[in-house]
């Protein structure tokens, strides 16, 4: 093929004529028709030159005719294009250089085609001009988009959080319009499914890619591991992640940093912390950069192990220091999360891990209880025993510094509370100071984590608030909501109400979560009524969660007046009870039955409310109340499938 019209036209210098001597009449007739067509359509002279006078067979002659027909067709198209060029040139609207591609210094044709398209739009239409459009199945108005346009549509829908509509573009529209999806569209949809934890659909799209023979690139594997990490069911996510990793090993897929991090995240969140650590070892073997991001994903894996995650997190931290990796704000926040949610596991293994980075001289002074040693009841909540003469925070242990030490610790016992583990990291003040020394400023998430890690002590909480002001960390409403929750959960109801003053000083407006955590501190009918009145005054709508919290408190106190009030309010506001709401009533009913049995047996360890004069009537009304609530339509969250929202 020639690169341009002029390139082919330039090679035809002389008129072309044809003459054939054919043995058969059919061949001679074909030659005559071809000659007339060439002369009439191409405008050549009728003279005949270079006549072929050799004798040829019919078969050879017909072959020659076929070849000449092909040449004629090419000449006809060339002549038409030449005439079209001349017509356009006469309008003086198109430069000649648009039709010439002989310039060896010119790369690509995009710009010229774009200019040509714009210039053609200015050419006046003639009466005989017809617009031709390629329709699907020959049906007018039924056209398909280009691949890039389908991709833009899918991306737009995903940005609008419309996953169902985005998937429908592939499964319905493109199928109807007989458009063939490419790898980019599949990658967009798999990534969209991964972000919302729609694991099943992500892998279904992955299988469709393989069936279509599309190339699966690294970004697809990253999204699939991310889908496993976000799966509503860790068991299913772990199963799929394991199969995917084995498939990659079988196909010898190149493992890059992003794939490795996504795999660590998937295995860690799904509970296989050992495999997450093995992948980290493979990163080192494959000489993939080991960064703070790698450390952060490993700490996420540690946080999934509630039994021994804190011990693993300490060892990850030590590995980070050995590799001279600088921790980020995410690293510190994840470490606090491990201290808040995870224990140290077996104390013997914990001591073994400590001995790997603590000087032996300090380890010899550290005492751990023997396996069968009994711990006195008064010491169960004191895991770290420090010399009584020591009161300064500087003598607290710190296992995070480059030169870790145990401070003045002489005995480790049952490390079960979050503030016990925080003490091993230097305490609240030591941890914050270490962050500042390393050039990392604590953010609001840091203090949110610390709030539920420090001891439930007003002094510790006030110190935390002071540090936030000193570091100019802006407090938000969520922090105050959690402070109310923490104080109520430890029975400090009046202290929880004091937080409302702080909220007003910061000019925040309480939200539904604020009233939800305040409900934890409502212990009588009066406080319950006050809370509901305040909720209404703020224009917030009562929900079954707040009613359930209030009911739970009333059931613990055998407050039948409040119970009746809340159930009637539930019916009046047409709020559907959930299973937890009904469970509170069932728990109280079982507790009442046990205490009645204890009383009938002549024992004294029963609730003295059974001695009230009207208790029989209250118990009878309570049983009828339970029966009525169970007859109502129940809002059962377990009946709602997490993926129902993504299905049509």
UniProtKB/TrEMBL annotation:
One of its GO terms (molecular function) is tRNA binding. Pfam families: PPR_2 (PF13041), PPR_3 (PF13812). PPR repeats lie at residues 182-216, 476-510. One of its GO terms (biological process) is tRNA 3'-end processing. One of its GO terms (cellular component) is mitochondrial matrix. It comes from the Eukaryota. This is Pentatricopeptide repeat-containing protein. It comes from Rhynocoris fuscipes.
